[in-house]
Design a protein that fits this description.
about 50% helix; single chain; about 110 residues; mainly alpha; flat
């Protein structure tokens, strides 16, 4: 019986998220860049993102220059392994500051 209540709860949450989701219009000329699972961390030995941050940063600059819209699908920040976002932010501050450029285009 509990399973049906869990199903109803999550279905209603998903329905609400879908109803309130921002609609993005696009056509054949639209340019999107989708990133997922970057897992940026605090620049410690356990930060898998740290080895690739320069490639990622330069790719972002090129995509922005070419007029792409940036969308992060999930797991961009490694928050399970870090006690606060602050340490992650300061470890990769240049990237977060650059990502603001993509946000200006959306809003």
């Amino acid at each position: 019986m509990r399973g049906i209540f869990v199903y109803i709860y999550f279905k209603s949450r998903l329905d609400q998220a879908y109803k309130n989701a921002k609609r993005i219009r696009f056509d054949d000329a639209s340019k999107f860049i989708l990133f997922s699972d970057c897992h940026s961390g605090d620049n410690s030995f356990a930060d898998d993102f740290a080895n690739n941050r320069n490639i990622y940063f330069n790719a972002l600059k090129d995509y922005y220059k070419e007029g792409y819209q940036y969308y992060e699908l999930g797991d961009g920040d490694e928050l399970l392994g870090n006690l606060s976002f602050e340490s992650v932010f300061f470890a990769h501050k240049n990237i977060y500051m650059f990502l603001k450029n993509f946000m200006k285009v959306l809003f």
